[in-house]
Amino acid sequence: MEIGQVCVKLAGRDAGKVCVVVDHVEKQFVLIDGNVRRRKCNAMHLEPMDQILKLKKGASHADVTAEFKKLNLPMWNTKPKKKTERSLRKRIVPAVKAEAKPKAEKKAPTKKAKKAA
Known about the structure:
The chain has a domain at 5-70: SH3 type barrels (Roll). Helices cover 14% and strands 25% of the residues. The chain contains two helices and five strands. The chain has helices spanning 61-70, 111-116, and strands spanning 5-9, 18-24, 29-34, 39-42, 46-52. The protein is elongated and about 90 Å long. The model has no long low-confidence stretch (mean pLDDT 83).
């Protein structure tokens, strides 16, 4: 597999989608990007196509997007989450504290407790 090789993902969540090899990570693993999530992938899970894009090793997502637009291929894009203000729960504080209750008196031992002793 060359860098810039256009492939189809065969296995996993993104199976059947088009991607491109961006970098060689390990012996059988490559970094892919395109119409899939940018991630490390086993080269055995990819089927190479005839096209090869002109990409540098470790090309950014923007570079891959530009090359995919030239070929009119769909591209995986994520939108950043909107930050919203979290509502804080207010602690309810009682107006008057309860009076201290006297401690409970000791109860007489039960029959079971007598037998155990």
